[in-house]
Amino acid sequence: MTESPSLDVHYLPQFVAEADLAGGTVVVIDLLRASTTICRALASGASAVRAFLSVGDVTREAGLRDRDGVVLGGERGGEIIDGFDLGNSPAEYTPDEVFGKQVFFTTTNGTAALNHARLGSRVVVGAAVNLAAVVDAVRGDRHVHLLCAGTGGHVSRDDRLIAGAIAAGVIAEGPRREVGGPAEATAREWQELLTTARALGRTPSEQLAAELRNTPGGKNLIAIGMGDDLPRCAAIDTLDIVPELDPATGLITAP
After folding, report:
1. How confident is the model at residue 1 (pLDDT cuts 50, 70, 90)?
2. What percent of the chain has pLDDT over 70?
3. Of 67, 72, 156, 197, which has the fewest beta carbons less than 10 angstroms from its beta carbon?
4. Per DSSP, what are the bridge partners of residue 6?
5. Alpha-carbon distance 132 to 60, whole Å?
6. How far is it, in rounded angstroms, from Cα 33 to Cα 231?
7. HSE on the CB side for 97, CA within 13 Å?
8. Tell me: the pLDDT tens digits for 194-220?
9. Is the distance from CB of 193 to CB of 211 less than 8 angstroms?
10. Cα(86)–Cα(74) distance, integer angstroms
């Protein structure tokens, strides 16, 4: 018997075995900020983003390349890594900085989640900025996994909210499918945010930015003086781009 289409949300990479993602579409979500920054880099004309697990991996690979064609980007503890060109703020990834170049990228949570998803038949990057584009890209896929990166190994509401937004879109627009409990819960959480936004006379983006201030990731950014990234990461549907990982090459591009 053919399996029914399914939709699952995983709150952290360690909550799902890599093998259980094999053969499905995996949407990797690290709203604050790797997912958003990858989208911005590609929208600014970067030829590709290559995600690395460690700083040492980045510097070793960069040593083998013409540095004029490579930008080193990422963070540890939310802040730019010593010797790197850029940090992890989407505001830094302008065409002047990245156009026509590969971005070698490593972050505390997001790039580890991408590595965890590598057995998926399709691996894409989801955020608020490309919400509708991601829903449109995956809604017809048979088995969809929404993989939250979390914050420092802990479940983080920022990722759950965007997982819920994507889940709600897939449920509404795709074929009937088996929906896991966490997917239903996050979709409800997103609907509650939309209801609150209407009650307060705010746009969904404004409400999302406000709620991000109270998430673990949001509090961390405010503590290091990067609170301006919260509205940037909450800017829903500002980019029509779906970054996709090629597991064979490790490159993330926007086909």
Report:
1. very low
2. 99
3. 67
4. 143, 178
5. 37
6. 11
7. 21
8. 999 999 999 999 999 999 999 999 999
9. yes
10. 7
What is the C-alpha separation between 78 and 88, in angstroms, rounded? Answer: 7
d(CA 116, CA 17): 8
Sheet holding 25-29, edge to edge: 79-80, 70-76, 102-106, 48-51, 251-253, 244-246, 122-126, 25-29, 143-148, 6-10, 178-179
The whole-angstrom separation of Cα 167 and Cα 145 is 9
Q: Helices marked H in the chain — which ranges? A: 18-21, 34-43, 55-62, 95-98, 110-116, 131-138, 157-173, 181-200, 204-212, 216-223, 229-233
Gap between the Cα atoms of 55 and 81, Å rounded: 8
Q: What single DSSP character describes residue 60?
A: H
Helix, strand, coil % over all residues of the chain, rounded to 5 = 45, 20, 40
Q: How many CB atoms lie within 10 A of CB 27?
A: 30
Nearest alpha-carbon partner for 129 in 20, 252, 238: 238
243 within 8 A of 51, measured Cβ to Cβ: no
Q: Closest Cα partner for 218 from 230, 208, 207?
A: 230
What's the CA gap between 117 and 227, in Å, rounded? 29
Residue with tokens 């590598």: 118
Q: pLDDT tens digits, residue range 154-194?
A: 999 999 999 999 999 999 987 789 999 999 999 999 999 99
Inter-residue contact 72 to 104 (CB < 8 Å): yes
Cα–Cα distance for residue pair 51/211, rounded to 1 Å: 28
C-beta separation of 230 from 198 below 8 A: no
